[in-house]
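Input.
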Amino acid sequence: MKTKEEGVSATRLNNKGKEVSVVHLHLGSTRGAADVPITEDAINCKDDPQTLEKHSAFQLVSIPSDVEIQIAKQRVQYQEGLFHFAMTGVSGAGKSSLINAFRGLRNRDQGAAPTGVVETTTDITRFPDPSPHNPFVWYDVPGSGTLNTPDWQYFTAHGLYVFDCIIILFDSRFTMTDLAMLVNCRRFNIPTYIVRSKSDSHIRNIIKESGYDSDEDEDENRSYRNALYSSAREQYIAETRATVRCNLQEANLPDQRVYIVASSTMVSTVRDQKLSEKTIDELELMRDLFREAQSRRCGQGGRSQVYEV
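Output.
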């Protein structure tokens, strides 16, 4: 396996006097951890920058050989003619639940990916899409940032360079590993989608923090509850998008949309073909993923096909 330092923001001289590219990921956190918390300072881009050089993620990037690429494809049962989506993120971000939702399954349905509070995935798990009209395969990738997989090894250790598209999922924190994932995917020309999960839970928490007590509420306060929900929803969406935009900016990465979803809402969108009042970006995410698959398929000489949403 060859090694090469490659990045998106700067160059430096190595010990032989040769100029090489390096990655500088400036994060809105000075806590020394891989996590980038969503805080008011982070939203306003006020935190002191931290570079990847100060973090364990700053390592020589491994360039896979042709043999290694073939081995990685065999390991995940990569098949030409199918589109392969990989779901990545820290343990507990809700990857398995969202994969189930993408496939129109609830967590307890037969054939659903196992879910749990602790990391339930130790190997990349393959889940074909149950719809015969959608030639997709969804992959549940072990959580990043755990003792099992050091963050700087996450991309190459799991052979993520063989996937057609990578969904980077986060719950409360956008991490150094997530940013490094974006850098590596850009190097390998792999499309990425940043997704924040569990929007329903986060919005409920904002409402609770405002002092609202559902136990003391009465039926005639419906309009008040609706106003609280609307305000909390707008706050959550604005803070999420501002924080991701700030982190990308500080990492010298181009701006990229973050999709805000909840698995329960997503499964209703896919399975029941219904949009609820809690829908945020679920439908747009599915449409954009399917368009990505369709454009790639057509670009490889395949015929145009409309996939089911």
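Strands lie at 2-4, 10-13, 19-22, 61-63, 83-88, 125-128, 136-140, 165-170, 192-196, 258-260.
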